[in-house]
Write a structure and sequence with these properties.
By secondary structure, the chain is mostly helical. The protein is built from three helices and two strands, in the order H-E-E-H-H. The longest helix has 29 residues, at 6-34.
């Protein structure tokens, strides 16, 4: 069995993280210049004091697709960004899309309300 070179693995991982952080700083700075500091979902407004909580979401989920006009980005607060990615994961698991809102409810909790109230 081949021995794992932990130092090499750590170095590769660190280089990958640095490259991702540099790439993120580039498109994040650009997005913050292009768009108002408002969450695109919940409408929360941000200032210099809390702008660190405003993230750049890639609409097509491809972090390498960064057109200079920002057409693949939207600014989302941490909570809405997390929710967007959770919806995407759930849609993949269920075979739908993140935009699917699901079908209408099939259960009617008031179906026998008239009988329960004793009215005909």
């Amino acid at each position: 069995m081949k021995k794992i070179d932990r130092e090499r693995l750590d170095r590769i991982t660190a280089e990958g993280r640095r490259a991702a952080e540099e790439r993120e700083q580039g498109y994040r700075a650009q997005a913050l210049k292009l768009f108002p500091w408002v969450c695109g979902r919940c409408g929360r407004e941000f200032t210099r004091a809390n702008v660190r909580e405003l993230t750049v979401h890639h609409k097509d989920h491809d972090h390498d697709n960064n057109p200079p006009d920002g057409s693949n980005w939207e600014l989302l607060c941490l909570y809405c960004h997390d929710n967007e990615h959770q919806r995407e994961l759930e849609a993949r698991a269920g075979g739908g899309t993140a935009d699917d809102r699901g079908s209408a409810a099939t259960h009617n909790p008031f179906a026998n309300l008239r009988e329960l109230l004793g009215r005909d």
